[in-house]
Design brief:
The chain is mainly alpha-helical. It has 10 helices and 2 strands. It is globular and about 50 Å long. The two termini are 20 Å apart.
Length: 175
Amino acid sequence: MVGKANRLTIFLSKRRRWIQGAAGIGLYALNVLADLSLGWILLIGVAFGVVFGKAFCRWVCPIGFIMELLTSKGDDRLRSMYQYHKMGCPIAWVSGALNRFSLLRLRRSAATCTSCGLCDKACYMPALDPERFSFFNIDKQRPGDAYACSRCLFCVSACPNGSLKYAPVLPWQKS
């Protein structure tokens, strides 16, 4: 049974691009109006990464929003640019490194997981490297802990019984 938190996650992930657009425009406007220095922007990105992991790229970043619009047309050459632009982004570097340690992480309940694999099919990480990443196969690395995971939460939305959650994890707990 899917709980309230997962229903909210599913609701938000289905509207992620709109949220990213609004948040990106808001962040850009704040930057222009408040004349924020690069240091403040990096500090905001690091604080965001400590709490959410690399979610900044998929939920807030104005450049990420523009790149997603450009790469959504289906051209593989354009699609590869989406990952490429993150190579030069210091916020992506820091928040990606914080995926494994952030306060909110992707968690799987082994007790309720049926190993249907829908989470892996929805996630771009196992699609990029199926031999390395899986949510339900315990012999593989968890995609949510990987540097490249940008917490789009499509995996959580795809889980039919709510076994995968984006939830708080204390630093000493295993996710």
